[in-house]
Amino acid sequence: MTEILVQDVTTGDIATDQRVVEHPAWPTLKNAVEEIRPWQSKDGSIDFEAEGAPTPDAARATLDRVISAVEELSPLLPHDAAYHHALVEDLRRWAADGFGVPDFLDSLLAFQPAADRADGLQHLVVFAMYTQNGNPDRNLEAVVLRMVWPEWLAELEATRYDNPLFCGITFEDFTSGYDTNSAVLFPETIAVREAPERFSWGGIFCDREAARFRRVTEASVELLGVELPEDIKEMVGDQQRCEQAFVLWDMVHDRTHSHGDLPFDPFMIKQRQPFWMYGLEELRCDLTAFKEAVKLEADGFAQGRDVQYAVLFDRMFRFPVTGERVRNYDGLGGQLLFAYLHKHDVIRWTDNKLRIDWDRAPQITNQLCGEIEKLYRDGIDRPKLVHWFAAYDLVSTYLAPHPGSRWARGPEALDLSQPPRKLVDDVLPDEFPLSMFYEALAKKLKNVIASTKGITAADAEKAAA
User: What pTM did the predictor assign?
Assistant: First the structure.
């Protein structure tokens, strides 16, 4: 776990440097939330007519335990007092309204973790929410987390990578929705009556990202016979170093969505596009982080070199073989990076070993970043469909499309009388299938990937020991 600096503050007789998870009210809260979750429907409401549902009185009694535990824990966290007050009101209103679709807008607006990013600061968060890459239903969840905001990162954010909404965070403990592959806490996942005009924070769990990176990288390096430079071998074996690399990577990646030449909505939330467009956007942000990491290394930041290899290994080893193959845009980005480096002789698979030219890797990775940036810059002058085809050409230069693809046959194979969004239906679920190399790697890493579900820093350290 990242080393933390905890302020010694007192409220009455309660020292607020006490870990929330060590207070007896935390297991009470956690157990009550776990009791409620199975009663909830997909939208978060409780259907009292459903099989196994509680009586309304039983549901209210369990929710009262949640409320009492929050009120008991809140004095440990005076910086969250306004949020916890609003949270209790939202929970009481949910019960008073008969446990319909929950609404946590008031408490969401009161929760402002980015306003004080003190390193090690604890937060207790309770919302009805889905967990991205985890549970798709809006169940009640509780999570205790700490802020990761060391001085060197705060200085970089203030001077080079302004990102006032970004929160690097680590887990203390969590309910079932986070016993999954989810490594983010995003306000847009929370059940509200209406979306606020703008969100004021976004959190990424760098400890989970670091832990699963280490486990998958160690297994991949062993399977593929990769000879790591000694300093990178040490980084992969060090949970704290990896957390520091990921919090920097994430901060730069996150801000890149709104920086640079952008011919479309940076998050593409309101647009229906082929999934390779999403893949290129995510890869562009990662490669921008890589490019900045090269500069940071040159400027004397040790974390810069760590970020470069975190990006390379996570993108090449974990991303392509993680998740289903249906519109897997993160997997596609990893495939593209590997193929590009292979095409330019930075990596070679010979004699059942993967060899990496460590000296040329930064230059050629930055070269791919430049090609994607040029695609974006030129895209401003293109119609949408022409731009999609230009992006397809870039990807298919290095990755073989599915032999049954209509898009691979060009515009003449599509009904161009339809609007572009309709032509997305002609994209195959797996438009760029895995290569033979990745098919074999996926089989060998299958159990390792599965073992990272719900992983924590403590799990990673236990396995290393």
Answer: 0.93
